[in-house]
């Protein structure tokens, strides 16, 4: 690696967790991406890219884009699909000490790519591991355990309030993916964890599936 004998360096995960003798067996698994840095908080010189392989739940393949679990006969399902996407933002901003900002933008400018629905918030953000787990079907945000770092870490289910959105929409962990593929052909999640300088981006596409 071209490291001088008197030069210090660290090896970290993409979540900036330093690899040590104590956590080596826990953090270093087949296929994991590691950083070789001069310090844990070193700025990356350029963007890194990795392909994430996982076995999709069969519902991802046979039911993506379907909405049978929230649509009723004669109802327009689009508002329900948008509500699923907003649910991620409600959860992400639930612990904000200041203003909670959630925006929905409908983009139709062909010069910026294909038409898209963008949901933007100022929440706590997700790590690369949390983005990976978001992509996996049927992982309830209340039951993610073991190797899974929940995208709703520390989530506390709020008391029910009549006629309000309380981030309990995606209880079964399927809504976001179904909503994405009902509205369009691909999803691009861009997130910066509140306590990190890194920006993580995840792309899921129907074509790849």
Automatic annotation (TrEMBL):
SUPFAM superfamilies: ATPase domain of HSP90 chaperone/DNA topoisomerase II/histidine kinase (SSF55874). Coiled coil: none annotated. It comes from the Eukaryota. Signal peptide: none annotated. One of its GO terms (biological process) is double-strand break repair. Pfam families: HATPase_c_3 (PF13589). InterPro entries: HATPase_C_sf (IPR036890), SMCHD1 (IPR038892). This is SMHD1 protein.
């Amino acid at each position: 690696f071209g490291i001088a004998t008197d030069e210090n360096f660290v090896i970290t995960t993409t979540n900036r967790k330093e690899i040590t003798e104590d956590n080596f067996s826990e953090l270093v698994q087949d296929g994991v991406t590691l950083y070789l840095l001069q310090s844990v908080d070193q700025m990356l010189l350029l963007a890194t890219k990795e392909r994430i392989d996982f076995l999709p739940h069969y519902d991802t393949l046979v039911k993506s884009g379907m909405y049978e679990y929230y649509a009723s006969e004669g109802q327009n399902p689009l508002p329900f699909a948008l509500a699923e996407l907003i649910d991620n933002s409600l959860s992400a901003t639930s612990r904000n000490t200041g203003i909670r900002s959630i925006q929905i933008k409908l983009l139709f400018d062909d010069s910026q790519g294909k038409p898209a629905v963008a949901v933007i918030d100022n929440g706590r953000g997700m790590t690369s591991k949390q983005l990976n787990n978001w992509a996996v079907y049927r992982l309830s945000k209340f039951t993610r355990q073991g190797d899974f770092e929940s995208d709703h870490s520390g989530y506390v289910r709020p008391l029910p309030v009549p006629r309000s959105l309380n981030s309990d929409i995606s209880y079964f962990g399927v809504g976001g993916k179904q909503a994405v593929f009902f509205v369009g052909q691909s999803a691009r999640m861009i997130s910066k964890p509140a306590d990190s300088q890194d920006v993580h981006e995840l792309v899921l596409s129907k074509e790849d599936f």
